[in-house]
Amino acid sequence: MEEKQPVLELQNVSVSYDSPAGMVHAVNDVSLKIYENTIVGLIGESGSGKSTLGNAIMRLLKNNAVLTSGTIKVMGKDVYSMHKNDLRKFRWSQMSMVFQSAMNALNPVLTVEEQILDVFLSHDKSMSKMEAKKRALELMDIVSIDPKHLKSYPHELSGGMRQRVVIAIAIALDPKLVIMDEPTTALDVVVQRSILDKIKEIQRVKKYAILFISHDFSLVSELSSKVAIMYAGRFIEVTDSKSLEQPERHHPYTQGLLKAIPQLTAEDVTIEGIAGNPPNLVDLPSGCAYHPRCPAAYDLCKKVRPEIRYVDGRAIECHLYDTVQSEV
Length: 328
Ligand SMILES: Nc1ncnc2c1ncn2[C@@H]1O[C@H](COP(=O)(O)OP(=O)(O)OP(=O)(O)O)[C@@H](O)[C@H]1O
Ligand code: NI
Description:
By secondary structure, the chain is of the alpha/beta class. The chain has a single domain, classed as 3-Layer(aba) Sandwich (Rossmann fold). The protein has nine helices and twelve strands. Bound molecules: adenosine-5'-triphosphate and nickel (II) ion. This is Nickel import system ATP-binding protein NikD. Keywords: ATP-binding, Cell membrane, Ion transport, Membrane, Nickel, Nickel transport, Nucleotide-binding, Translocase, Transport. Pfam families: ABC_tran, oligo_HPY.
């Protein structure tokens, strides 16, 4: 049987920033496939490389960043071998991103309607203003914003509404892949919940492939079917979300993160954080980058970087699991 084409395919992707302190190895050798109608979560501590990867997929890296290895394909097309003009059409129509803190980056001098119309009219020169206005109204309905706010300026809207506008802009052209970088982080819990429910609802209807970036483990595992756990730029584990209900047979870092989630039902609600800090990405530790913080680290971990092993269907980079099985 012919294998279904992934919407997003990352193959051994690495990204570095050129900085005065040296090369910052922000993303290191990550591989992942996301198929249509699925949400994959990407989690990791601050500075682990999540946004860099999102920006890399969109080919919107900062000037001092370089894709040092690997390929990024969206709908089978290599994003980095695309001609600039094709890329301009491809971006937003096939792949889009809700950028971290984007709700604070809406243009303050344009109304919501002007910003949405701009997306339609800049991508489809043949679209009439009438048609674009009709589509903007439909979008407002999808993200549940009263159409009267089309005439509002961003500062007149609440944070939750601005975030809905940003999501509306990202899905305006009905892309196949939507990257959402911490789309609810700055919002209070109630608003966060309503935005999440909205994302789930839109995803169900539109069958998007979504890469959902967050540092909130419980939120990500609720929303996604699969989760990639990033540490020092590497996917140290890629697992189905369901498996996260059991703390056994995961990467020690994943286990540390799981322990850090407050268990509201448990009698003992002490939260154990992970001791230590993430490594300096200019000068990564030898062997496994997690070894200085890992309670289970032994000699080999300091010397040799672990290859991926497949443990109960999870891809784990850890020496504790010594049998290197092939992917089944
Ligand atoms: N323009 C830049 N120049 C140099 N280094 C950078 C630049 N942008 C990011 N970095 C570094 O790259 C690493 C990864 O950053 P990135 O923003 O991708 O992390 P993140 O996982 O998204 O973090 P957060 O959860 O805080 O958003 C960090 O060490 C950061 O300091
Ligand atoms: Ni980020």
